[in-house]
Amino acid sequence: MFSASTILALCFGWLAQAATVTYDFNITWLIANPDGLLNRPVIGINGQWPLPYITATVGDRVVVNVLNQLGNESTSLHFHGIYQNGTTEMDGVTGVSQCPIPPGGPFTYNFTIDQPGTYWYHSHETAQYPDGLRGPLIVNDPDSPYKGQYDEERVLTVSDWYHEQVPTLMKSFISVTNPTGAEPVPKSALMNDTYNLTTPVEPGKTYMFRIINVGAFAGQYFWFEGHTMRVVEVDGIYTDAAQADLIYISPAQRYSVLITMKNDTSTNYAYVGSMDQTLFDTVPASLNPNATGWLVYDNTAPLPTPSLLDAFNEFDDFTLVPTDGEELLGPVDYSINLDVKMANLGDGAS
Ligand SMILES: *[C@@H]1O[C@H](CO)[C@@H](O)[C@H](O)[C@H]1NC(C)=O
Ligand SMILES: *[C@@H]1O[C@H](CO)[C@@H](O)[C@H](O)[C@H]1NC(C)=O
Ligand SMILES: *[C@@H]1O[C@H](CO)[C@@H](O)[C@H](O)[C@H]1NC(C)=O
Ligand SMILES: *[C@@H]1O[C@H](CO)[C@@H](O)[C@H](O)[C@H]1NC(C)=O
Ligand SMILES: *[C@@H]1O[C@H](CO)[C@@H](O)[C@H](O)[C@H]1NC(C)=O
Ligand SMILES: *[C@@H]1O[C@H](CO)[C@@H](O)[C@H](O)[C@H]1NC(C)=O
Ligand SMILES: *[C@@H]1O[C@H](CO)[C@@H](O)[C@H](O)[C@H]1NC(C)=O
Ligand SMILES: *[C@@H]1O[C@H](CO)[C@@H](O)[C@H](O)[C@H]1NC(C)=O
């Protein structure tokens, strides 16, 4: 027999889970200059770029009413890392799960999210998202195993940034004049879609940074000077807290890390994202692969220039252990090796 209060609790539990969060997204062209080097068209939402975040709680229904007001390009939204269990048609991958949303067209995304963690959303029409249509998607978790172990959260995006727009980049990328398939080399690295990002922090507090690489191509090394990270989530999966001084974040990858601030407020500390230049076929002398931000304890104190590292000794994410306790699969009976190589055709396409 359930008591009345149990039934009430169940009802309220159910109500809490059944919340719907609704976003109206008008997608338009805007002008932005995130690296201070070039004003260029970017794809914004509701007159805003950087883009608004999508935020939900585990169990919520998310409704995104898109209106494509670009005028000259189709679009779509993909919710990266969300399983879309039973709602494949909401996955946003044009030519696979839906037709492109044509200029002037509306489309309503409507799905539930039953997974906690750090995600992102982006256009999945052609190669469009590096023109700006990409932003964080955060799924809060009232039952997080790290609940109570941090005071505040900070979302932080890292990305590469191009000056030419995607249609131009793609024309030279997939071309007979580029038979080896050399990828376009970015012009800058960004943090939070800006330059010289400052993050006010309070002494002694522990912050959970949700770090997302929303870039097109470049993986980034990432570190905080003078502070150790504790990795607690990767790509929506909680991990046993693992200490790391420097992490490598591939495009689309996400890390949540806990960082405890110092008690001494006299010095500010840099944090750095450094694009992995081994990916670039040619590195122009003018390229600054690094983006720097600062943990600001005292806004009257200087923002120090980060020290240069001799080498990137990144944390090995293969050592991460999920908190779910799921057993590893046992030994296999047969193993089959597949050799994979990237063999572009003479026309630059593969
Ligand atoms: C970032 O800060 C540096 C050093 O103060 C300055 O030279 C540069 O112009 C700034 N960049 C932007 C885009 O604000
Ligand atoms: C989106 O655009 C339509 C048509 O121009 C307008 O009526 C509506 O208010 C806009 N919505 C937002 C959220 O900007
Ligand atoms: C569409 O218009 C924008 C803004 O004027 C422009 O930057 C972009 O290159 C155009 N796209 C195409 C495919 O012509
Ligand atoms: C997908 O939904 C089905 C039916 O509700 C459920 O049984 C299954 O566990 C779900 N799978 C995942 C990965 O959540
Ligand atoms: C979203 O889907 C649910 C379940 O199918 C439906 O009840 C609801 O009306 C839909 N909402 C919108 C805005 O389409
Ligand atoms: C990044 O920008 C968002 C939105 O303005 C802000 O809430 C967040 O605190 C910023 N992150 C950092 C690390 O400063
Ligand atoms: C900061 O001060 C608190 C309270 O006195 C102490 O528990 C903590 O260990 C100190 N943190 C550091 C990094 O020294
Ligand atoms: C970027 O940072 C790395 C690591 O500290 C350093 O080796 C490199 O010289 C820096 N590049 C520039 C242009 O500052």
Question: How would you sum up this structure, described in words?
Answer:
The chain has 350 residues and is mainly beta. The chain is built from 2 helices and 19 strands. It has helices at 4-17, 166-173; strands at 20-32, 40-45, 54-57, 61-68, 78-80, 106-112, 117-122, 134-140, 152-161, 188-191, 197-200, 206-213, 220-224, 229-234, 237-244, 246-249, 254-260, 269-275, 290-296. A 6-stranded mixed β-sheet has the order 10-9-12-17-14-15, with no helix packed on it. A 5-stranded mixed β-sheet has the order 11-19-18-13-16, with no helix packed on it. The chain binds 2-acetamido-2-deoxy-beta-D-glucopyranose (NAG) (8 copies). One 2-acetamido-2-deoxy-beta-D-glucopyranose binds next to loops. Residues 83, 85-86, 114 line the site of one 2-acetamido-2-deoxy-beta-D-glucopyranose.
